[in-house]
Amino acid sequence: MKVVNFSLENGNRYYGKIDGERFFIGQRVPYQGLKGLMNVAGSPAQKYDRAQYRAIHGFWADFMHPTAMAEGALFHTLNTYDRALFTFSFLQYAAHVPNGDFVVYLRSLLALSQARDYFPDLTLQNGRICRVTDTGVRPLESDDSTTGLQDYLNPTSQEVEDTEIVQAAKFIHWVQRDPEHRHVQVAVGVAHFKEKMKRYAVQYHLDGADDITCLLVADIRHQGRAKGPVIAAALASSNPQAALLKIGETSYPERVATLKREIKALTADGTFGRRRYHLDSGEFALN
Q1: Percentage of residues in the chain with pLDDT exceeding 70?
Q2: Rounded to whole angstroms, how far apart are CA atoms 213 and 285?
Q3: What is the distance between the alpha carbons of residues 263 and 73, in angstroms, rounded to a whole number?
Q4: How far apart are CA 285 and CA 244, in angstroms?
Q5: Cys bridge to 95: 20, 86, 120, 148, which one at CB 3.0-4.6 A?
Q6: Which residue, among 183, 200, 186, has the nearest Cα to 244 in the 3D structure?
Q7: Which backbone phi and psi does 180 adopt, to 5 degrees?
Q8: Residue 92 pLDDT exceeds 90
Q9: Which residues pair with 28 in a beta bridge?
Q10: How many other CB atoms are found less than 10 A from the CB of residue 91?
Q11: Where on the phi/psi map is residue 10: left (φ > 0), alpha (ψ -120 to 50), or beta?
């Protein structure tokens, strides 16, 4: 079992130690009257690298690259200060959505060999994340709620509690040191984008659409910066890609700038601009 020790230093920075190794957990930050942890600091080696996963996931490893860069790209990207209560991974999987990306991610993690070392009190039962207690096994999530899971990870957003520090430390230490954990993160991300693209292709008539347009729609929906009618209006314009890039440009200038930069780079190297999405196969194919 992994034992977490932590310390608060320089007023707002938490550091952890597991197996004698010291590492940064996160910075205490305020957010709209709430408080939590944030970790968006790391080295290039700790970031998602599409080239490492292309052999397994093909073009999908490239397709989600711009969104990963916009989300920080670090496998240990963390925030515990907003309504999700716990968000983690290079694509920022959020714990507040029933059957959502974080829930699927943690279910997959619990199947790994090191799961019992980091979370000995968690188990899967009937496909659900459960906690083993002195009084029995208690489900932490269902089709309708993840309240139990959120409470397990971070009891409140009113203050930074020991619980969220310890749980965050476990996730960070595990993903930084276990390639299998990182492969799970990526596999969950690819599956998420594949599933969503099938829905978007129907909702926004993207069957046969080019890869850049599909990526822009997927990124808008991933972040949640616009709803269906706004996206549909952009797609119906004379220049859909330009219109899609305008969505959120005022409120999220850094994200849109990152998307533009990454799309330009992937287009220049021949990755983007040569494929179209086909709903019947659920895949992108060369023009």
Answers
A1: 100
A2: 14
A3: 15
A4: 22
A5: 86
A6: 200
A7: -65, -40
A8: yes
A9: 37
A10: 27
A11: left
Question: What is the phi-psi region of residue 54: left when phi exceeds 0, alpha when psi lies from -120 to 50, beta otherwise?
Answer: alpha
pLDDT score recorded for residue 209: 98
Q: Which residues pair with 23 in a beta bridge?
A: 16
Which tokens hold the place of 106?
Answer: 């943690």
Determine the average pLDDT of the residues in 213-228. 96
Three-class HEC string of the chain: CCCCEEEEECCCEEEEEECCEEEEEEEEEEECCEEEEEECCCCHHHECCHHHHHHHHCHHHHHCHHHHHHCCCECCCEECCCCCCCEECCCCEECCCCCCHHHHHHHHHCCCCCHHHHCCCEEEECCEEEEEECCEEEECCCCCCCHHHHHHHCCCCCCCCHHHHHHHHHHHHHHHHCHHHHHHHHHHHHHHHHHHHHHHHHHCCCCCCEHHHHHHHHHHHHHCCCCHHHHHHHHCCCCHHHHHHHCCCCCCHHHHHHHHHHHHHHHHCCCCCCEEEECCCCEEEEC
Residue 33: its pLDDT value, please? 87
Q: Which residues contact 23 (CB under 8 A, 6 or more apart)?
A: 15, 16, 17, 169, 172, 173, 176
Please answer whether residues 121 and 115 qualify as being in contact, where contact means their C-beta atoms are separated by less than 8 angstroms: no
Tokens of 36: 């939590």
Handedness of CA 6, 8, 9, 13 (dihedral sign): positive
Is pTM, for the whole model, over 0.90? yes
Q: For the chain, which residues make up each domain, given as ranges?
A: 5-183, 204-286
